[in-house]
Each structure stands twice: as structure tokens, then as C-alpha cells.
Amino acid sequence: MRSNMLQTVLNDLNGTSADIEASAIISSDGLMMAALLPNTVDEDRVGAMSAAMLSLGDRTARELSRGNLDQVLIKGEKGYVLMVQAGADAVLTVMAKPNAKLGLVFLDVRRAADAIGRILG
Question: How many secondary structure helices (H) and strands (E) does the chain include?
Fold first, then answer.
């Protein structure tokens, strides 16, 4: 039941924004909880990288006195990867197009992360 609710959040997120190409919900220890990823992407690898990046970003924010980590944004020539904490023990990872309107993507991702946090309670 909970996995269906998480999948619905991803379906809504990907359907809301044409700029979002893929998304996944990953536990803080790197296990895939729900995903809408292309077939060419290895889910296990995405899970491990997302958990590691969020952990490193959190440590960096704390060590440099920047407060609690809000998000990690990676920009590459083929687009963006955005990772946001979704509740206490999950990460929402989103891949967006290179020409994405980031303000709208951030808004949609934040709403989805809040919904995920409520589901995972």
C-alpha cells in the first residue's frame, strides 16, 4: 500500500513538469523505494549515489556552519540532478532537462518531498 502511494507521488511529479525526466525515492541507506527511471539507468547505482551525495552534502553543510541541508543540485551539460530530503529517512532524486525552469522544478520537488515525508511518517 505504501509503495503504491509513493509511486503515485512520482507519477504526479513527473506528470506535472515537462522539465522532469525521471525521479526516484531512496531510503537514507541507499535502497530504492519507488522509481520512474529510464531503462538505461541502474536503480541500485542511483540509490547508492543519492544516499552518499546527500550524506556528504549534510556533513558539508554542518562542517561549514550552513545549517541543515535543504538540497543538493548537480548541473551537467545534459541536465540537472536534484536531491532533496523527503522525511527523516528518505531522499527524492530528480533528473531534469538542461533547459529546465529550476524555480518551478524546485517548487514541484519540494511539494513531492513533503508528501513523501507524510507517507513515510
Answer: 3, 5
Per the DSSP assignment, residues forming a β-bridge with 65 are none
What radius of gyration, in Å, describes the C-alpha atoms of the chain? 13
Q: Which three cell numbers stand for residue 29?
A: 541507506
Residue in 93, 75, 74 with CA at minimum distance from that of residue 83: 93
Give CA–CA dist 66/88, Å, rounded: 19
- The tens digit of pLDDT for each residue in 41-99 reads 999 999 999 989 988 999 999 999 999 888 999 999 999 999 999 988 899 999 999 99
Chain mean position to CA 20: 11
Nearest C-alpha neighbor of 94 from the set 66, 59, 53, 58: 53
Find, among 2, 23, 3, the residue nearest to 11 by Cα: 23
- Are 54 and 28 within 8 A, CB to CB? yes
Per residue in 7-27, pLDDT (tens digit) is: 999 999 999 889 999 999 999
The pTM score is 0.92
